[in-house]
Amino acid sequence: MVDTEIWDFGSGIPTKHLRFLHHKTIGELFICRCDISTCDGLILGTAQPCVALHEGDPTLLRYNSARRNYRLKVRCGHIHISNANSLAELSWSTPQRILVVAMSTKFIEENVASAFSGNIPSLPSRLAIRNDWLLELLLYMRKSLGEPAHCDSACLELLGASLVIKLYEIFGKKRLYQPSIITGGLGSVREKNIKVFIEHHLTENIRLNDLANAVDLSTDYFRKAFKQSFGKSPWRYIRERRISQAKEMLIKHDQSITEIALNLQFSSHSHFTDIFHQITGISPSKFRDHNSR
């Protein structure tokens, strides 16, 4: 019986065939360098949508589908795409090394929806493709793993946004339906209710589905209507509200900056500091010092 593995690049947990050499988290973006052992047969999926760059020696990749079996010669510079919605039966002939950039659904929604007028294309999984645009972005991000000063977290997040937009632009497939036109936003009652909901849940993990359910709308309609009402995506609004809450906590509480960051659902001290500086133009520590005098 063929084994099944789900590779989770967010957690960085190794599997029988996957070992992490480097693992870097920037908000909802995960950059990993991994070694993969030889595999005679595996049903494989990923926990997050991701792009993988083949770095090792040429290998023979076999892909068994319901219709036919494929044999692909994979070389350095080939790129694989996983949409995290499907499993594939694969085998490969030699040990390999890959660079992976994975992203959460939230990261995709925040960056891709606005680029495609709210109608996010579907993304098919692909094996052994070549694309100079994606390759250039991936190589630049790879350099940051070995040379952190080469590109800080804010820079990597921008590169990640560029990567995912380009990915959907080149390989995304338009859905068969067109989204309904949103002309009136959420309306005053829903706007008030969603503001209250967000304020009460700033210290919790807020999902798009939670927001839509709070005002009895579908997630697709809610996302477009929210932007019509507030002029920004739900994630940008929530991020700004969390930074406002952080300002109060920095002044009024004795909690460490790391404690405040984690309490407000930022992934790390550095991620919080980067976002705080982007929005306020000052670091959290300097903000606290200036307001404690």
From TrEMBL:
Gene3D superfamilies (alphabetical): Homeodomain-like
Superkingdom classification of source: Bacteria
UniProt keyword annotations, A-Z: DNA-binding, Transcription, Transcription regulation
Disulfide bond found in the keyword field: no
The keyword Ribonucleoprotein appears for this protein: no
Domain HTH araC/xylS-type: 192-290
Stored PANTHER family: ARAC-FAMILY TRANSCRIPTIONAL REGULATOR (PTHR43280), HTH-TYPE TRANSCRIPTIONAL REGULATOR EXSA (PTHR43280:SF2)
Stated name of the protein: AraC family transcriptional regulator
